Amino acid sequence: MASSYKTCPGCGLMLSSEVAVCGRCGHHFYAAPPVMPPPPPLVDVPYKLDDPLSASTPPRQKAVAIALALGLGGIGVHGFYLGNSNMGLTLALMFVGGGAAGVIALLAAAAGACSPWLSAVGFVPLLIAATIPLVQAARYGAASAETFHQRYVVEKRWI
User: Which of 158, 144, 149 is nearest to 51 (CA)?
Assistant: First the structure.
């Protein structure tokens, strides 16, 4: 079998095609161009996202979030469902703390330590914690599935 020859680009010496280093000038070259591995295959993302890091965030059902916000929203259950533990914990603390402050204020009013109207102020955090989920449920319902996922699951927005 006859081997093919080529010329060294450094000194012009005729060399066998298997040689990768010229014996006269020491010029290095490849007998054949190096073979590059094929690129890895592209992976399909199941839903379109603006944030490339959010592909690891599992999708949540919009109807479940709305039902939780309307039913148990005052104690923040829908926040925990959406992965926003800060929202869930804040709403739970406002609900429980507002309820406890309201009861203490009512007991103080019953004992004559303050007026009954002033005792109603203790229930304000409870009322706020009960109102926020109603607004959130309306916002969840108005958003498309993709917008819902991006805003409330990935970005963890409250409203």
Answer: 149
Length of the chain in terms of residues written: 159
In this structure, of 14-28, 78-92, 128-142, the range with the lowest mean pLDDT score is 14-28
Same domain, 3 and 62: no
Half-sphere exposure of residue 93, counting CA atoms within 13 Å on the CB side?
Answer: 6
Which of 127, 132, 107 is closest to 118 using CA atoms?
107
* Mean pLDDT of all residues belonging to the chain: 80
Domain with 12, as residue range(s), is 1-33
Q: Which residue has the tokens 């303050």?
A: 114
For residue 46, being part of any structural domain is answered with no
Query: Is the separation of the CB atoms in 130 and 72 below 8 Å?
Result: no
* Residues 68, 29 share a domain: no
CA-based nearest residue to 132, from 57, 84, 104? 84
The residues facing 5 across adjacent strands are 16
